Amino acid sequence: MSNSGVFDLVAISTNQSFIQRCAHLASRFSFDFSHYDNPDTFSNDTTDAGSVKCFILDCTKFSNIHEAAGPIQVARQMMDKSYIICILDARVKPEQMELLKKSGANLIILDTEFTSNSKLEFITSQVIKSAYLPIKVTDLILDSSLEAPLYMLMPKNQKYLKVYKPGLNIGNEFLCRYEDADELYLHRNDVSKWLEYVKSFPADEEHQEVRNCRAQFIKLQQVFLDLVLILSDQTSSTSFSDGKLLFEDCKKFTKDLLTSLEKVRYPWQIINNSSVGDFGSVERGTAIAAYAGLLSRKSNIGEPERVMLAALLSDIGILLLSPAATEKIREQKAGKLSAEEKMEFEKHPIFSVNQILSKRIPLDDDVRNMIMLSHERTDQKGFPNQPSPNKITEDSALVRLSQEIDQCLTIRMGDIKKDFAAAFQAFIEAKLEVGDGYSLATLYKLRPHFKVTS
Fold first, then answer.
1. Which fold, 205-449?
2. Domain ranges of the chain
3. How far is CA 451 from CA 214, 266, 403, 447, in A?
4. Which residue in 111, 114, 314, 352 could disulfide with 374, CB within 3.0 to 4.6 Å?
5. Which of 288, 253, 258 has the alpha carbon at shortest distance from 410?
6. CATH number for region 9-115
7. pLDDT greater than 60 at residue 276
8. Closest Cα partner for 429 from 440, 416, 417?
9. How many angstroms separate the Cα of 393 from the Cα of each of 367, 369, 446?
10. Who's near 390: CB < 8 A, 6+ residues apart?
11. CA pair distance 353, 363, nearest whole angstrom
């Protein structure tokens, strides 16, 4: 009997522990989930295979790499737009994995990583929940048209409802209808169309600067996600070359975003505070980088573009933590980490640096140092190395401070929006009162710049 249900996540395996791993992940992130023994069974049982957002295929049972390529090709033919993850035996040589990428797999994860780290959690959360990026309704222009669909997030079931068809005129009735929503959503695949729209339909001068700035934010957000996905990929030559290109794009787009932020009157308000994918500081890397770059520029602490890059990359090592550990961190229950999980968590800045270097991506010494110091404190209660206070640079303190600012101000699904200016001011005053492992000299240097109107 055919199943017409639309699934976020489908797993293909005959291994019960494999299915249980995927089912637990789906329950933690509220994904619509199903599993099948093989692609043919799935094909016979569904009428809407193409709507599956993410497809996880267990290829560990195949002794020959060419045998694994067949099911991937079948899956890709059924689901031309789905994100296909292949779980592969760790004994397969990296150069052999290229065949599976050519057959249609988007990503290769080794079986040894499938249960031991949180790459799968991050990737699925981004592909499924963060497949859509928020755009401001005020950035839409009357009597214009966009060559991409727009969606509204339904708060009760956290699903996306299409509210605009590509090419239609955006009239006054449409703008009034969604004015109170503040944000509509665009699929990541349509970012280039949105950027073209912003360029083709300009607003008045001041509003256009704001629109350009938000567009730069989206560009960096997209390329950063692509970089993290490449860092998670186990194929060799493709991920090395692509990783270097994406890293260079990240450097360019951080510079472009910073330049754009400096042109707007209220730069703090440009930074997107909506969290959709629920993966904390890794997902929020773009916002954290924007805060850090602005503070660096305004306070003359460090080199802003390098500070931004360090802030962007400092927490990607969290993906190498166990699923149990990242679940507690996502739920803001770090205090409940076991001793082993806490030890693991406190090594993640080292993991971040190693992940980048493992793809032969060149990190200059300043950026590497900031990443390593991004969770250190002057009271020596930080991690991973607890150096003497005079070893903690001001620019690395900006990275940690920006992470905490973002955590304070991020709006998650179901949260009531905070008053930005009040929350911002209260945050810095609290830091000045208790120190909280920061140099007071650094905090006083920053204090004049913690104004929403600056």
1. Hypothetical protein af1432 (1.10.3210)
2. 9-115, 205-449
3. 20, 9, 17, 8
4. 314
5. 288
6. 3.40.50.2300
7. no
8. 440
9. 12, 9, 14
10. none
11. 8
